[in-house]
Records
---
Amino acid sequence: MRVLAVAGVFLPLSAAQSAVFTHIEGSADHATLESALNKVTAVKDALADANGPFTMVAPTDAAFTAALPELGIAAADAATLLDRADLGEILKYQVLSTTEKVNPLTAGDMTTVQGMTATVTVSSDATPVTKVVGSNSAGVTISSSADVGTSGNEEHAVHVCTDRILLPKPVYQVASEATDLFSTLVAALDTAGLEDVKTGLGLQNGGALHTVFAPTNDAFAAYLAARGIDADALLADSELANIVKYHILAGKVMAADVATGEVDTLYQATLYGAAGKLSLARWQVEFGEGWEHSDG
């Protein structure tokens, strides 16, 4: 074995060239974001220059503090944000999936690295106000923007917000906004006895990750017809809570990972992915993906 002496330290590309993280690290207002990225190193490493360019919304410490009530976290327990299982998903939602830096931001829907869409709005005021909207309809207000890069190559854009952090829509919100698809499911979640499930599919769930096999209105209609009952009877059914829980998995399961076999639901073990059992179609929900199925 040969040992060669070198006059320097070799660093992985992601550690050596992450202009976005270097910019955040050098900001006095982004200590929480810096800590979060150091906590979820997979996201931090993904921001390497070689993987870019990136366009990122960078919430300040004040923005993180302001967002705590939306996440059900008391101000005195701010440190618990960094221990949430969904922290990586929240961080990925701050990064827009683009092939080039976007500065200034332009109005329209933009896909994030997390996979869900955020909406950019630009006011028509003499001094335009730019906002990025996720779960909160008020959006986050961009207070300043900067092009960042290395060696004079400013290939990334960082947009600072101070009023709150950008959060993706939770499962329940996605379903409630898609009434043409999921009004029956939402009505079921709104019934007594399912409060804990509804909370679990919201932002104030402690960061728990879920995957939902979400029955569409057509799926429920087929089920009701097969049982010979109407929607009111379903919503009054003592088994409704178990029926809904049977469609929810604890944890994040992506479409590509769905396979034949048993998996635990919030109710009991179930079989998914077997031929003829479920007709699956991709449906974006919070912090991953769920699926709508059409066979009741």
---
Amino acid sequence: MKSNIFPVNGGFDMIRYEKLSRLSAEEIVDLWNRGFENYFSNVQTTVDRFLNRVANEGLSLERSFAAFEDDRPIGIIVNGFRTRNGRIFAWNGGTAIVPEYRGKGYGKMLMEHNMALYAEEKVDEALLEAIARNEAAIRLYESVGYRKVDRLAFMQHEGALDLTAPEGYEYRRGLPEDIGEAEFGGGRSTWQAQAANMGKGECVQVLADGRLVGYAFYKTLKGEDGSLSALYLYQCEADPLRPDRDEILSAALAQAFRPLESAIKRTVVNLPESHSNLYSLLCKLGFEKTVEQVHLKKSMS
């Protein structure tokens, strides 16, 4: 994408765009952290954490960019791209404007530039998430064609879990990528919860008569002594055609959340509230909502 001149508040400022691949990791992280100062939640990062995101979440530094006025940084957009079933999906993994440039139309400029980039890349569908109470950001995304498709909840439980695994199922452990195209969620999962973007995630498959009927994707965090200290659930699905869907979900949770007697913090990441069966089950187990987001999509084709 070439640099362009854009009108801002009636004047003209020279805006220069740079691919993130042309910046150092330290420059990218500094701009990210400045852009997310005083945000609704703490998303400050380090070089190591950011590079892990690039590796694990399909982020493309070549197709992400920073904006500058002269040599002063304005903001940043970080993008990820995946091709699935012949369709190209793009994920906006972060849009941030440094504080002194907020409220002046620069966010709209960056988003319009990003839509032009997606068009050049022949993207079929664009995806992103936003904090539900960040109404200004949601209006910005809707102004360039995104629409809200679901509400998302972070849920959390700390302590032992009172959950009994239903009988009659078998289990197989492996990686999220082992599921392949057999995902049951119908495309409702968010970008970071998809098998291709799970990085060091784990998977438990639920089998009935040797056939896959459910699964859970999760990640574990261990303390310095090697013991389990936290667990993050990203997906839990059951075959929608099965009459025993709730039992399958319970079976998958009982395996993913092991050991159930352990008093660790368990977090559910971006659970679609349209997944009502799982949402109800987690509420009954004592999980509480901590953060609410919205899931937005835009058809580009």
---
Amino acid sequence: MKLSHTFFISLGVFCLSTATTPLPLTEESSARIVNGYAVDISQVPYQASLRRRTVGGWAHMCGAVVVSARGVLTAAHCGVSYVDQPTSVAAAVGSSQRNSGGTSYTISRFLIHELYSTMTLEHDIALAITSQNIAFDRTVASVSIAPVGMTIPPNAEALVTGFGRIATGDVASSVLLAAQVKIVDQTSCLKAYLRIAAITPGMICAIGTSPLRDACQGDSGGPLVYDNRLIGIVSFGEGCADINYPGVYTRVSEYESWIYQKLTEI
């Protein structure tokens, strides 16, 4: 069975759209936060935006997360098309605005997980290396990575942030949005996606209710944080903020050793 999904490249609600091949990384095919609230970058200083060079300047394409002075984590599907042209992408930090403000650092390399699958979206994680050190201040800081084996109880509240769309097919947010979502137990998530995608141990699911809250196009690669630790990276979903399909994230704790190994290669 071919996977049907929507990548979450902009903030809003996690969404999936039907596609049999990987979607191009554009604002239209990225995830966003649905039913979120505006948040200042100083409250989530680890949030970054991957912006691609366009004829008209630089445009947001994916979220990312600052994890060191030279690296930002993102989804593999955000960087796989730019492995051979990394300098056409920049990591913007320290801004609550989608396409302006903050400081931008050119990407020198995209390190895609070696087992990443474009068909199943397993191992949907990548490290983007910046060409120079990121300067930290009150609006720019790294986030702690969830350690291997970290247990996150079902219904625990986590925070997802991003610049994606505010609803399926809607416009993207011009400012940084945040939403509280609850962790969905693995068995329930597996059953929800039974006919659509395989939910593996390297994935974690979450959704917000009353009102429905989720990531959406444009949020892909962005952070899911619990207890001040990065536990997830926005990956995919079936539509946005659909009560029947929680948003799916890459489970960061499963990749702790991979992340630190890649950071030593900088």
